[in-house]
Amino acid sequence: MATTTRRVLKGTEREETAARAAGLYLQGCTIQSVADQIGRSYGSTRELLLEAKVRLRPRGGMTGRYGSAARR
Fold this sequence. Notes:
It is a single chain. With 72 residues, this protein is mostly helical. It has a domain at 11-55. It has four helices and no strands.
C-alpha cells in the first residue's frame, strides 16, 4: 500500500480550506466526500470542520431533523 505525504496546512491556506470544507459539508456532502474533494484525509477533514465550528451530523447520514431541510 502506497502512502502519500501531504503538506501541513497553515495560516490563511488552512482557514480557506476549512471554509471550503465547511461549505461542502453544510450542502450535505459526507466527511469522506469532502475529504476527497479537498484532497485531504478523513481525519484531517474532520479536524478542519471542527475548527470551522461546524456541528457534525450524527452517524447514519441525513435522517430525521438533519435530512428534512435537504429533502425540501
